[in-house]
Amino acid sequence: MSEGLDALVVGGDHDRVVGEVVDVVSRTAPEIREGLVGRRQPVGGEANPTGDTQMEADVWADDLLGERLRAIEGVGEYASEERESVVDCGEGLSVAVDPLDGSSNLVSNNPMGTIFGCYTEPIPAPGTALVAAGYVCFGPVTTMVVATDDGAAEYEIDGGDRRLLEGSVTLPREPTVYGFGGRVPEWSPEFTAFAREIEGECKPRYGGAMVADVNQVLSYGGIFSYPALGSRPAGKLRLQFEGNPIGYVVERAGGRSSDGEGSLLSRDADELHGRTPVHVGSPDLIDRLEDALA
Ligand SMILES: O=P(O)(O)OC[C@H]1O[C@](O)(COP(=O)(O)O)[C@@H](O)[C@@H]1O
Ligand SMILES: [Mg+2]
Ligand SMILES: [Mg+2]
């Protein structure tokens, strides 16, 4: 494990496996980034298991990560947003991946990311079974945030190297930015009223890739929400691949996560591709949001 991760305690035999998962994701990130060129089109007529358009890069990144993560001894399951079912690969941790989060941004050339979570239980698993999670953010530079039960660390990825930027990522207490997904007329009256309050207090930052939007919240303080919509009462984002790992990272950085009622991590996981409303950010704002939705 590289510097920084050593400080994050995973516990028991999971330590080595998590270290190898993080190594694979960070080593693969520059290849994914380079491979986006020429893969920015939808795959002919294909939708992924949750009905979203699959870009060529979605499928390619999933193949690359899937092959490498499944080869790690101690990874027992590989699950991806881009696959219909879980791949069994032996005994050990279950790894869930959103190979490219925000891949619709490929068309407009805006930031995106890769999300992963390491669960101690078979997938679908609750967020309480996570022992590590993280994401890569493909922005002007490539960064990675990794969280374990001991906290969160941020790295810069340059070629094959992962350099520690911050060994103890802490969500700033003072909220500065907000990003809310979905069309406003589709929000509930309660969420709309909450949003109106926040609009008077923070600056809007919404880019259409959760990883990049949450990364701003982690950098500046504030809140990211993709709420339940009239046309999507269960929300848009997926619990296994997006809600749980991002909720885990934000909580380990001192923030809060919520599905509108309580922590994302305590939400039941009954479906592999199940969706959830996602709210993450400064504890005070998430408390206020839950009060507003109650
Ligand atoms: O286009 P919208 O409705 O704003 O949705 C954006 C949201 O959908 C996502 O792009 C879904 O992720 P995928 O690209 O992995 O399907 C999130 O990253 C983002 O928060
Ligand atoms: Mg996603
Ligand atoms: Mg995706």
Automatic annotation (TrEMBL):
<comment type="subunit">
    <text>Homotetramer.</text>
</comment>
<feature type="binding site">
    <location>
        <begin position="101"/>
        <end position="104"/>
    </location>
    <ligand>
        <name>substrate</name>
    </ligand>
</feature>
<feature type="domain" description="Fructose-1-6-bisphosphatase class I N-terminal">
    <location>
        <begin position="44"/>
        <end position="158"/>
    </location>
</feature>
<comment type="pathway">
    <text>Carbohydrate biosynthesis.</text>
</comment>
<feature type="binding site">
    <location>
        <position position="206"/>
    </location>
    <ligand>
        <name>substrate</name>
    </ligand>
</feature>
<dbReference type="InterPro" id="IPR033391">
    <property type="entry name" value="FBPase_N"/>
</dbReference>
<dbReference type="InterPro" id="IPR028343">
    <property type="entry name" value="FBPtase"/>
</dbReference>
<feature type="binding site">
    <location>
        <position position="81"/>
    </location>
    <ligand>
        <name>Mg(2+) 1</name>
    </ligand>
</feature>
<dbReference type="GO" id="GO:0005737">
    <property type="term" value="C:cytoplasm"/>
</dbReference>
<feature type="binding site">
    <location>
        <position position="101"/>
    </location>
    <ligand>
        <name>Mg(2+) 2</name>
    </ligand>
</feature>
<feature type="binding site">
    <location>
        <position position="98"/>
    </location>
    <ligand>
        <name>Mg(2+) 2</name>
    </ligand>
</feature>
<keyword id="KW-0963">Cytoplasm</keyword>
<feature type="binding site">
    <location>
        <position position="242"/>
    </location>
    <ligand>
        <name>Mg(2+) 2</name>
    </ligand>
</feature>
<dbReference type="Pfam" id="PF00316">
    <property type="entry name" value="FBPase"/>
</dbReference>
<keyword id="KW-0460">Magnesium</keyword>
<feature type="binding site">
    <location>
        <position position="236"/>
    </location>
    <ligand>
        <name>substrate</name>
    </ligand>
</feature>
<feature type="binding site">
    <location>
        <position position="98"/>
    </location>
    <ligand>
        <name>Mg(2+) 1</name>
    </ligand>
</feature>
<feature type="region of interest" description="Disordered">
    <location>
        <begin position="252"/>
        <end position="280"/>
    </location>
</feature>
<dbReference type="InterPro" id="IPR000146">
    <property type="entry name" value="FBPase_class-1"/>
</dbReference>
<comment type="similarity">
    <text>Belongs to the FBPase class 1 family.</text>
</comment>
<dbReference type="GO" id="GO:0006094">
    <property type="term" value="P:gluconeogenesis"/>
</dbReference>
<keyword id="KW-0119">Carbohydrate metabolism</keyword>
<dbReference type="Pfam" id="PF18913">
    <property type="entry name" value="FBPase_C"/>
</dbReference>
<dbReference type="GO" id="GO:0042132">
    <property type="term" value="F:fructose 1,6-bisphosphate 1-phosphatase activity"/>
</dbReference>
<keyword id="KW-0479">Metal-binding</keyword>
<feature type="binding site">
    <location>
        <position position="100"/>
    </location>
    <ligand>
        <name>Mg(2+) 1</name>
    </ligand>
</feature>
<feature type="domain" description="Fructose-1-6-bisphosphatase class 1 C-terminal">
    <location>
        <begin position="172"/>
        <end position="292"/>
    </location>
</feature>
<dbReference type="InterPro" id="IPR044015">
    <property type="entry name" value="FBPase_C_dom"/>
</dbReference>
<protein>
    <recommendedName>
        <fullName>Fructose-1,6-bisphosphatase class 1</fullName>
        <ecNumber>3.1.3.11</ecNumber>
    </recommendedName>
</protein>
<keyword id="KW-0378">Hydrolase</keyword>
<dbReference type="GO" id="GO:0000287">
    <property type="term" value="F:magnesium ion binding"/>
</dbReference>
